[in-house]
Structure prediction request, 219 residues.
Amino acid sequence: MTAQASDHGAGSPRDSLRAAADTMRAVRERCVWSQRITHRDLVPYLIEESHEVIDAVESGTRDDLREELGDLLWQVLFHAAIAAQDPDDPFDIDDVADTLTEKMVRRHPHVFAGETATTPEEVLVHWNAAKAAEKRTRTSVLDGVPRGMPALALAQKLAGRAAGAGIDAPVADGPSSEAELGEALLALVGRARAEGWDAERALRERLRVLEQDVRSAEG
Prediction:
């Protein structure tokens, strides 16, 4: 850690975040490995760190969660440090934070702009209205869904978007709890394994059909 980063390490949470950003910038500038890393190179690490946060939430300790959140934050700082060196369109962690703050203020008018929301459902109305205003250039409810998500997470995301277009994804009878759903999903994967099928591919191919149905319905 640089002397500058150490000086900022104590005090307010903002000072701690600044120290982390300063430390990342020093690593980017002085570490020969970090100097060569691109946004694309970092993607596998970002995915891995995200899953480690999930593990910490679901089965780890408080110390595990604190550490893994820090590792995930480091990925954000790393991407921002890379972006700051872009010769054509640079931005840094302060730009990222400012954009985030503006978005969160805009999407919470019941907190920052005098609107009223007394239930989670009313909060969602404000949130969706703000998102819709931001995304006027989008032509489909499916726009903006990251296709790199694991198939099961992608299926849940697309099913929700499809419902917004009036297309209902198939609903299976049977499970009445998350635990029973887990059992059913594992049983389906077991069947796929026994048959030599690729469960991930099978779901992705079915999702392509769902996407086609949604886009057809949208005209």
